[in-house]
Write a structure and sequence with these properties.
Immunoglobulin-like, about 220 residues, 2 helices, Myelin protein zero like 2, 2 domains, alpha+beta, 3-stranded antiparallel β-sheet
Length: about 220
């Protein structure tokens, strides 16, 4: 009886240690943080995660929404083995699953944006035994037109520079073409002038010879 106590005590101690360490392995959520989209368009709310445990049938995904102007939190989307769309409310027939669990992606697409869709969208993933972790949030701003960011200005500058280089190359090629054409025309004229000059000289020689013979 006493001989079995040390192994049992060791197992209990190991169990306590595992229980203490297990909560550290929590689900981590990754989102864009902030997003801007044009009114009337569709937008993809991207949410990915990492988990200590392998993805199984127990995994659940919950999307909720809190309006920017305040108010209660609203249900947007739920996934557990299959997607569950909202049956009523503002998001009815406007949200679809666009995730890929093989890539740890639990994103959704929101159709036909409206100005009152402004607010914070939260993405929560539970993958038992990993059920703890922070909730991902995306602050969506629905605007009339997308504001140009530094990336857009950089892309515009690069595109303009490339277009300018193409125009310069075309101008150089055209100029060289016309120069070659002029040189060819000049060479052709010179070739035409030379025979005429030779004929004139020959004619003068003939006249001089004839005059000499007459004398």
């Amino acid at each position: 009886m006493y001989g079995q106590s040390p192994p049992r005590a060791a197992l209990l101690l190991l169990g306590f240690q595992l229980a203490a360490l297990w909560p550290i392995a929590a689900v981590e959520i990754y989102t864009s943080g902030a997003l801007e989209a044009v009114n009337g368009t569709d937008v993809r709310l991207k949410c990915t995660f990492s988990s200590f445990a392998p993805v199984g049938d127990a995994l659940t995904v919950t999307w909720n929404f809190r309006p920017r102007d305040g108010g209660p939190e609203q249900f947007v989307f739920y996934y557990h083995m299959d997607p569950f769309k909202p049956m009523s409310g503002r998001f009815k027939d406007r949200v679809v699953w666009d995730g890929n669990l093989d890539r740890y992606d639990v994103s959704i697409i929101l159709w036909k944006l409206q100005f009152d869709d402004n607010g914070t969208y939260t993405c929560q993933v539970k993958n038992p035994p990993d059920v703890d972790g922070l909730i991902g949030a995306i602050r969506l701003s629905v605007v009339q037109t997308v504001q140009f960011s530094e990336i857009y200005f950089l892309a515009l500058a690069i595109g303009s520079a490339c277009a300018l280089m193409v125009i310069i190359v075309i101008v150089v090629v055209v100029v060289q073409h016309f120069r070659k054409k002029r040189w060819a025309e000049r060479a052709h004229r010179v070739m035409e002038i030379k025979p005429s000059e030779e004929e004139r000289l020959n004619q003068e020689k003939k006249i001089s010879v004839s005059l000499e013979d007459t004398h």
